[in-house]
Amino acid sequence: MIKTVIIEDEKPASRKLERMLSNFPEIELVGKIESVEEGVAWFSENEHPQLIFSDIVLGDGLSFDIFEKVPTKGFIIYTTAFDQYTLKAFKLNSIDYLLKPILEEDLSGAVEKFKSFIPSGDTIGSQDIKQLIRKEKSILSRVLVKIGYNLKIVQTHEISCFFSENKIVYLQTEDRIYPSDFTLDELVETLDEKKFFRVNRQFIINSDYIKNIHTSPYYKVELNFQPEEEITVSRDRVKDFKDWLVS
Could you give the CA distance from residue 64 to residue 163 in angstroms, rounded to a whole number? Predict the structure, then answer.
């Protein structure tokens, strides 16, 4: 039997996932957790399960906080409505990342992936997990931003550029500028490289919003929507930039 825990703060979603997992006779559900605080306590006091299904955004924080405080010895399959946390998820022993609403075939594929990592009767430690996991690049399609006490989903195709200022990375849309939780390095790893390009240390631009490109005395890009600051292409990036424009 595969001992399994669900981390989910929305009761309907938790019950739905439990029903879906009941279709797998090899899975034994041994715990259900609803918060970061409860998760830290549970993993501190109990034997770690082999498999964990975990939402990311919980009422009192991110589920990442649980595993940073109590390193897990099991595999994690993240379940979430937001795909902006993909890169961090794969740094924390994740073997899969399922976007809600979860489809039966996606869940089945994730369970089969887990089973393929562990030969029957064997156990694997967290260090072995890191060697076994195949990290596949996931393309970021939505970004979760905070506006006061509210959250908003912004589609990446609505974003003309990302830029850093005072150690914070912002995103620009037609309507306004929003702060994000990303670094530019993380965005380079997760954005669609056919659409987005890092022109310098401060800016990542979206090709769909390029209005004009000046080439003298240096390469300067004008976007349909951009902050007041001038967007220039670093000298060492000019060739890659030109290749990207026609790729």
Answer: 25
